[in-house]
Write a structure and sequence with these properties.
transmembrane (chains A, B, C); two-stranded antiparallel sheet; NaCa_Exmemb (chains A, B, C); homotrimer; Ca(2+)/H(+) antiporter (chains A, B, C); membrane (chains A, B, C); mainly alpha
């Protein structure tokens, strides 16, 4: 049913976006149309990527998911970089990290926990992911924050580029570890065969690639226009660029993903729900963020990997909280509520900033 | 025997407090009398609350303990707020957190550990509490610290109020989780029946309520006067308001509780000792602190939830240390000494500040 | 074979150091000679200490290892203190902490992990050490950092001295705990008898003491001269004092130790490898650093226990990362790579600073 809605929204939203853009409708209306269109297009991209991943087998599929999983966010960010909106890009990265770790995981744990008293997920994966979260957010993001305080711009950028290269290299190494050298090593043996059998590609290879391409082009068109509405929309609603990036862009870019995590939790498939939330966070922090730093070198305004202090502290604190909640491999409604509480606190903070 | 001493101190201390106040004795003498009187009155309030908790059953009893457990501290703080001593209130909150997490837990682990080689407590509770400690101290206290750096006063207060409401809501949700939806879910099955049978109320319902009311009124009277001695006592001894709040008020407000935690540890009832230390910390951070922020709105000087940097860092660091020590569900004398070492380090720091 | 190389380097390096010093060779050449000579002398001191430790039994042996294990670093630092180079001393302490936690542990896990899919070590030790790491680095180092921001010099020093005394006291208590009251309590029972039998002292008591003394004197001579080359070498290569301290001095002072940790990991003796890396970190943080603060009181320039912000944050972040990686008692090549990645990130940061 959700799929039908997305089809309708897409087939109304895309032409409406084109018409509205050409006719210079009011920014607020366009902003709304663009956002809804992107959310529905993102769901197509997600389904196409998944179909391709199943067709191409677990290794290449894992790689596909790991690189295209946040394609929408990447596309929006590239256009924002091109428009020189570095603050919005850093904010939307922050928003994605917070959104995945606190909002998505929180909703999943909470809604899943309303149905099931205790839900379990693979502890080994949680430990592995905890270390990566600390590496990415607490090491790779905090170090430039502190070291660049008295550094000139060119050195800040050198440091950012160095860290970005290491982040991407380690992200690839993590995929190699998970998909090649240690595939299945930490998984419980039973069921895995049974579960893999039920996975069947929704679309064939050709159809999936066609849809992926078409949706990507459409997203790119809408995203470019979306970026240019930020300033006016911010002024109309009294929102700062920071708030737009952290709350709006992050939610629009990840809405489809968010929904499927919650559905998985409701079906008691916590491994999948956690994998979506944490996996997506790691992808943002270890792949999308550093790629954007490197891409920004091609544009006029370069983006160093230096977040504002509130952004940095929010992310670090969110990582510590989610690790302390996830490290027993068990969840319940109250743990979900705790994560949501943290998200609301930060939301209020960024709104008032 | 301890009870007899408290009776004597109470029946000498209360009239002496009244006489001394009326006759304007020296601040230092009054300060000493007030402190001792409050400590002994607090022990009566504690016993009355516990009796009521047993009589009213586990659910309402748990709620009673959770709200009246730090009543003395709450009363002292309200009078300090009324006198505009925001710095002292924030300091005494800090002192309670540090005192419970480091001093009480440290003494319990150390003294218990001198008698028993290894002591154990419920790991599930420890994990649950760890997440709440991180939520309260590292999220809810750190966020306003960082976000308000460049914020004007009214926005700082809005943020503080928002966070306070969320803290109280989550505290109530935690009680609901513990007492209703997940009662006994994480407890080992055995013994529980046996242990609950041996609990018997010391006082009947009527007597407990009478004593609780009388002691509360007496505490309120003494506390109001105590607050006004701070300035002169500070000057006589060369103590800053900060030091008085962090070390003196915090110890006076929690002395009775502290003693019973150590006694429990000595009896190898580590679950109870840890529950007192950590439970009390959570109550301070998630209930007393936000309630005080909201109450301060009624007074002339409003209190934002913004600690000084040394206070904030000390609390955050104490949380990380105590979590890392507690997360294996086992204690020994050395772990107690480590916590005490941290308390002394911070004590020296606040003394020299 | 490694031993033969060390013998050759020692018997060429020591006379060359003397001759070069007297003939005022270029600083860069001398710097290189001094470094190599110290590395090879350090290996003799390590072997002599170990032989003595075996001869004198586990208790006194443990004490010997715990005090002489970082003798080389201590000697170099004392001469740097004497020359007033406080910045270099603090940097080399930082470098040792980072080097042990990230470089040595990282290399051990990585190289060991290339040979073995999963390697295991004692989880109880890891938990015990985690708490101490947090105590030393996150409590004892962070507190003075934050508290001294607005403190005058004499109070900063008082705080540093107080913390140093507590650190040393707790370090001795930790030895007492490990060697006396809780010896073997947390060790798995099996094998331990078998393993202890195979340990045999390389040298007799007399020979070991003679070599230890001779090597110490030689190290002292070379170290004193090494310290005076820092300024010129820094200028020639464009290295800051900070970088020399953090990367060069730390590696030279610990090279021999580093090598043996990696060899142990390659032999799948992860308990030993982790003990070297983490034990050495604790020794630096809880014994060498505070001893140097106290020794500095004898010199003209006193050293407070206040690191620069990048140093402090790097150490705190390294502790959090290594705890999150080590707390499951299992390692693999990817965990090693993660630690190495963090080391490189910090290395780049300090180079650009």
């Amino acid at each position: 049913m959700a799929n039908k809605i997305f089809i309708i929204v897409t087939f109304i939203g895309v032409p409406l976006s084109v018409i509205g853009t050409l006719m210079h409708w009011s920014s607020t209306v366009l902003f709304l149309i663009y956002c809804l269109t992107i959310v529905s297009l993102a769901s197509f991209m997600g389904r196409a990527t998944e179909s391709l991943a199943i067709v191409t087998g677990p290794r290449i599929g894992g790689l596909l998911n790991a690189t295209f999983g946040n394609a929408v966010e990447l596309i929006i960010s590239i256009f924002a970089l091109k428009a020189g909106l570095i603050g919005v890009v850093l904010a939307s990265l922050t928003g994605s990290v917070l959104g995945n770790l606190l909002l998505v995981a929180g909703l999943s744990f909470f809604i899943g926990g309303l149905k099931f008293k205790r839900q379990h997920f693979n502890v080994h994966d949680a430990t592995h992911n905890s270390a990566l979260l600390i590496f990415a957010v607490i090491v790779a993001f905090v170090i430039p924050e502190v070291f660049t305080i008295n550094m000139n711009e060119s050195r800040s950028l050198s440091l950012s580029v160095g860290i970005s290269v290491i982040l991407i290299a380690l992200y690839l190494a993590a995929l190699f570890f998970k998909l090649v050298t240690h595939r299945g090593v930490y998984q419980p043996k039973v069921e895995s065969g049974a579960e893999q059998q039920e996975e069947e590609a929704e679309w064939g290879k050709g159809k999936a690639i066609t849809i992926l391409l078409a949706a990507t082009i459409a997203v790119a068109y809408v995203a470019e226009n979306l970026v240019h509405t930020f300033e006016e929309v911010g002024q109309s609603f009294g929102w700062s660029e920071l708030f737009i990036g952290i709350i709006i862009v992050a939610i629009v870019g990840n809405a489809a993903e968010h929904a499927s995590a919650v559905i998985m939790a409701y079906k008691n498939k916590m491994d999948v729900a956690v994998e979506i939330a944490v996996g997506s966070t790691l992808q943002i922090a270890m792949f999308v963020a550093p790629i954007l730093v490197l891409i920004s070198l091609l544009f006029e305004t370069k983006m160093p990997l230096v977040f504002s202090l509130p952004e940095m502290v929010s992310m670090a604190v969110a990582v510590l909280l989610s690790i302390s909640i996830a490290n027993d491999g068990e969840t319940n409604w109250f743990e979900g509520l705790t994560l949501l509480g943290a998200y609301v606190i930060m939301g209020i903070g960024f709104y008032l900033l």
